[in-house]
Design goal:
The protein has four domains: 18-24 and 98-269, Jelly Rolls (Sandwich); 48-85, no CATH class; 276-358, Immunoglobulins (Immunoglobulin-like, Sandwich); 364-453, Sandwich (Immunoglobulin-like), CATH 2.60.40.10. Helix content is 5%, strand content 47%. It has helices at residues 31-39, 53-60, 67-74, and strands at residues 42-46, 87-91, 97-99, 102-108, 111-115, 118-120, 127-128, 133-136, 141-146, 151-154, 159-168, 173-182, 184-189, 198-203, 206-209, 213-219, 226-232, 234-238, 248-252, 255-259, 265-269, 276-277, 288-292, 298-306, 314-320, 324-327, 333-343, 352-358, 364-370, 373-379, 386-394, 403-408, 412-415, 421-432, 441-445, 449-453. It is elongated and about 115 Å long.
């Protein structure tokens, strides 16, 4: 696959370039430098029968007069006579293109999209073009789908700019570039079908480019260290600002690389996927709770919740130092959870995906003495039909219930004929989903409570 990158950079430079984000800096002071690096990149065109340099300039160069720069770069003596099969290097910045587009596939929370000096209202299906500036706030998420099917996902507190979103006419190829100022980004890149196709993610000091893979990049806000982790496919990483002088390191699936602001580069194997305890459990409490099988190698975990298996529509995310992951409430439904382990060296491990059901169903109860006997009450939250069951046992939690009332639709029962003694009681609920396509009911009980009766 790496042979296909040869035509992306000058012939005097490296034959393959893939690097990762190094620091989270503002765009303004560095966009000119990033643009200069992009403009220095070249493609190779092989002359066909009937081609002339003048003809190529007229049809495919942004200015006809730019043929002079191409002629000089390739040391062409006669632009009218070019042998078939001649390889011609052309700077990408000189080529005509049509604008490509990205569509807003999904978003949650507060998302800011600015384009051509105006703010766009985020709606699903919104077309987002080159030059757009995108920000996500806390507990906010969004996913873009590019024209070739690639997906770009931004978690909370992230800031990116789409610096290239083009379709090059000469090579019938894509030219995508995203600049990251803050936060994290997941790139799920569709396999690039043409030699000249380019997908890159750029920072002021580095760039990553792939030809079909799934990988993550994170910038540590304190140290500026950038972590790149390959989930599928393969990435090559280079540290430092110079694209031609950097030393390349191959990062296949299951490995990662960390680049510091000083230019040091370290490679590591990613932790294996964590194992959830009781992943099929219905999440019925007010907050979602997931427990992870403990491992000494993990210092914490991250969990991402989405409504789809592709994690396009992300609804919640949490990172904790231990093995118990808690997330705020979400609507009832079927969801997918992606869990990763965090290592002491800063790398995020390989993911494991689980499906689960969310159905809010809380339950609590109380018992007290009133004027007409002992009153048992219960309460709770949950959509759909709820039926309750009251059990009262005498002397022991393991004895046979003296009262076992099921199918109750009320939330209170008063008993006036309890003899003196010690009792244990609890209440249960059977709750049916409000979704007509979900016939499965859930059942839960309160813990036993002790009650002493002395008339």
């Amino acid at each position: 696959m790496f042979e296909e990158f040869r035509d992306w950079i000058p012939s005097s430079g490296l034959r393959l370039l893939v690097a990762l984000f190094i620091c989270a800096l503002a765009f303004a002071p560095n966009e000119a430098a990033a643009q200069k690096k992009s403009d220095a990149e070249q493609i190779t065109y092989v002359f066909k029968r009937g081609d002339t340099l003048f003809g190529l300039a007229n049809n495919y160069l942004r200015k006809w007069s730019d043929y002079v720069a191409v002629q000089r770069l390739n040391r062409i003596a006669d632009p009218r006579q070019m042998p078939v099969g001649t390889s011609l290097r052309i700077p990408v910045s000189l080529l005509k293109y049509r604008p490509s587009e990205a569509k807003l596939s999904a978003f949650r929370g507060s998302v800011s999209i600015a384009s051509s000096g105006r703010n766009l209202t985020p709606v699903r299906g919104l077309n987002i073009g080159e030059g757009s500036d995108i920000k996500t706030a806390a507990r906010s998420f969004m996913t873009l789908q590019l024209e070739d099917g690639s997906q770009v996902s931004l978690p909370s507190n992230s800031h990116v700019r789409i610096t290239r979103l083009r379709h090059i006419l000469l090579t019938d190829s894509i030219d995508y570039e995203i600049a990251v100022a803050k936060g994290r980004i997941r790139s799920k890149v569709a396999p690039l079908g043409k030699k000249a196709d380019r997908y890159r993610v750029r920072t002021p000091v580095a760039v990553s480019a792939v030809r079909g893979t799934d990988y993550r990049t994170r910038v540590d806000e304190v140290s500026g260290t950038a972590f790149s982790e390959t989930v599928e496919g393969e990435v090559v990483v280079a540290a430092g600002e110079s694209l031609n002088a950097a030393k390349l390191v191959s990062i296949p699936a299951g490995t990662g690389a960390a680049a510091t602001v000083s230019g040091a580069l370290a490679k590591a194997k990613l932790l294996p996927p964590p194992e959830l305890l009781d992943p099929a459990k219905v999440q019925s409490e007010t907050t979602l709770l997931f427990a992870v099988e403990p491992r000494e190698s993990a210092i914490g975990h991250r969990i991402i919740i989405a409504s789809d298996a592709g994690f396009v529509d992300v609804v919640a995310e949490a990172q904790v130092p231990g093995g118990v992951l808690e997330l705020p409430t979400i609507p009832n439904g079927r969801y997918f959870a992606k869990v990763t382990a965090l290592a002491a060296d800063g790398f995020e491990g390989m993911p494991e995906t689980y499906s689960f059901k969310r159905q809010l169903s809380t339950l609590g109860g109380s018992a007290d003495a009133g004027d007409f006997g002992y009153r048992f009450k219960w309460f709770g939250e949950g959509e759909g039909e709820r039926f309750y069951r009251l059990q009262i046992l005498k002397d022991s939690k393991t004895s046979v219930p003296i009262i076992d009332e099921a199918g109750l639709s009320t939330d209170i029962v008063t008993l006036s004929d309890l003899a003196d003694g010690e009792y244990y009681w609890r209440v249960g609920v059977i709750q049916f989903s409000s979704d007509p396509d979900d016939p499965e009911a859930i059942e839960k009980w309160t813990d036993f409570e002790k009650m002493t009766v002395a008339n």
